[in-house]
């Protein structure tokens, strides 16, 4: 298989741990590739992520509190699992650990981190393989709340003063796709843009919470890519909803990383590259309104529920404010990465 991948990718795979992403296109060659090289079922526009390692099985790291939703090959049953930090191994929690197969239902079960670690120790650990299809780690969240202008650099590139109050807007669940899924360049927009963001996952019901207690309501973190149709964002009197909520406009993943695995969520590097060229690079310490303040402020107006997502803003470097402006086009590959959380790769495709 390594020789086949070498020929297809035009380079020699590393003998050490590496990530190889192959974009599978919907034509005859894709079917040949899936059947003869990867050995998995044919799925339109599927990205297949292979982990290759020269480590012996006994040297592989154990899965930890990094939660994924996934399918096994052609089996349509959704599953919940955990992966190791290096992405080499995983374990299915929903197979026999009295854990729901749905992440939202799992959150409502209210397991402590120690209980979860105990359950992980008791389930079978498996080597990552090419039959695993990653889904968005959260499916059908009750709310997707976004925060605009929450990084000083993003304000500066627009020649705007930082806001005195958080700027909240929303996306709808139809926008969600997984960490290796495609982003559709809908024909109604000509100005498709990128925004890498740290997303907060709420753990339990939250209302009228003070800042000092707010972080106790955070289950964990994931990566979000706030895809935006800038032409529609500026229409309708500046109402963001249409420009932010088109189908596939919110890739998230690859995992929800438990808060105990993140030292300081306000000191994480994040970046976005397009076709390998770095466009955004920042650190979450640049947030104008920190996570605890965002949760406290939101909970003073509405009830936050398990699985609700808060996208905390983006650093400078979005396409609209490059000189001249730069926008996504069909075939572009978006890579979003946040320190300690992981990486996503999404390709832009035609409708």
What this model shows, in words?
This protein is an alpha+beta fold and 351 residues long. It has 2 domains: 66-134, no CATH class; 144-349, Fumarylacetoacetate hydrolase, domain 2, CATH 3.90.850.10. 18% of the residues lie in helices and 31% in strands. The chain has 9 helices and 21 strands. It has helices spanning 2-9, 28-38, 103-109, 113-122, 152-156, 211-214, 230-233, 241-244, 291-299, and strands spanning 18-23, 47-52, 66-72, 75-83, 89-92, 125-127, 132-134, 144-148, 167-171, 176-177, 183-184, 192-193, 196-202, 218-225, 228-229, 250-258, 269-274, 277-283, 309-311, 333-338, 342-349. Strands 3, 4, 5, 6, 7, 8, 9, 10, 13, 14, 16 and 19 form a 12-stranded mixed beta sheet that branches. Mean pLDDT is 85; it is low at 1-57. Residues 143-348 form the Fumarylacetoacetase-like C-terminal domain. Keywords: Metal-binding. Belongs to the FAH family. It holds the Pfam family FAA_hydrolase.
